[in-house]
Design goal:
- The chain has about 160 residues and is mainly beta.
- Helix content is about 15%, strand content about 60%.
- It has 1 helix and 8 strands.
- Strand 3 and strand 4 form a beta hairpin.
- The protein is elongated, with a radius of gyration of 18 Å.
């Protein structure tokens, strides 16, 4: 099932990329050399900060740092604390970058370290992660944007605030 989803995802990105190449936009929200700094927050207790560098007019790469913290209290007074820290890299293809909009899709890979603990036990977990995402940004002016990102990464959905420089 996951193989088919990934294949569908990649096919969709390629189809949009080909469509983008056949049209010319008057003004673009992404140019080679641009940098984007983003702060994201999901529905869960996860936050991320990412830096993207445009290596072409359509491709950005960069590091990402994520933090997830949660505490669940049971009715008997016990509680469980969960913490995950992730550091990785991302690659995004921006297939629509006209006027005030920036639509993109990409992949993320990295290393995640976490722990779950309560009064009785402590479990640590370290692993390599891989994720996919798709999102869009709306630029209020030439530098500031708000966006929505969906995917299988740090969270299923996130709101992002971005600054382009």
């Amino acid at each position: 099932m996951n193989k088919y989803f990934i294949l569908f995802f990649i096919s969709t990105v390629i189809a949009f990329a080909q469509e983008q190449n056949t049209t010319s936009s008057v003004s673009s929200t992404l140019l080679k050399g641009d940098s984007i700094l983003s702060l994201g927050a999901g529905a869960s207790s996860a936050i991320t900060i990412a830096y993207e560098k445009a290596v072409s007019d359509n491709i950005t790469v960069g590091p990402i740092l994520g933090l997830y913290r949660d505490k669940y209290s049971y009715s008997d007074g016990e509680s469980t604390k969960t913490t995950y820290t992730t550091i990785g890299g991302l690659f995004n293809y921006h297939f629509y970058t006209a006027k005030q909009f920036d639509l993109y899709a990409g992949v993320l890979g990295g290393y995640r370290s976490g722990k779950v603990e309560d009064g009785t036990f402590k479990l640590t977990d370290n692993d390599v992660i891989f994720g996919i995402q798709a999102g869009g940004r709306y630029y209020f002016n030439s530098n500031f944007a708000v966006g929505l990102e969906l995917g299988y990464t740090f969270f299923i959905g996130a709101i992002r605030l971005s600054y382009r420089f």
